[in-house]
Amino acid sequence: MKSFYSLPEDITWIEVAPGNLRAVLSERPEVMLVAFSFEPGTVGALHSHPHTQVSYIAEGSFEVTVDGVTQRLAAGSSFIVAPNLVHGVLALEKGLLIDTFTPRRDDFL
After folding, report:
1. 64: which strand partners?
2. SS3 106
3. Distance (Å, rounded) from C-alpha 89 to C-alpha 10?
4. pLDDT per residue as tens, the chain (109 positions)
5. 3-class DSSP state for residue 108?
6. Lowest CB count within 10 Å: 52, 60, 84, 98, which one?
7. What are phi and psi for residue 34, nearest 5 degrees?
8. Phi, psi of 98 (to 5 degrees)
9. How far apart, in Å, do the first and last CA atoms of the chain sit?
10. Residue 42: CA atoms inside 13 Å, Cβ hemisphere, count?
11. In this predicted structure, what is the pLDDT of residue 9?
């Protein structure tokens, strides 16, 4: 199992939707670290999954909705999503989210 990952040679960006890219930064079966890049105005559609998610806003600002509650968050902020809660984001400006999932999201591999 790989223990070290380096930017940019070990990272592959995948277009999730127009204006939204995803890159798996590191992973093991029990945990995964993923970057999501957003262009201004891009929506991370409302969705749910059985994983716990912790998100850190590394750049930009977002309207974040978790379980029907929406809040504006900027770089340096974070939020957590319990399994199966509906959540999504709207990029208010160019932004970067760093998400941790447990267990790993195999659908991202």
Report:
1. 71, 89
2. helix
3. 27
4. 677 777 677 789 999 999 999 999 999 999 999 999 999 999 999 999 999 999 999 999 999 999 999 999 999 999 999 999 999 999 999 999 999 999 999 999 9
5. helix
6. 84
7. -135, 140
8. -115, 115
9. 14
10. 20
11. 74
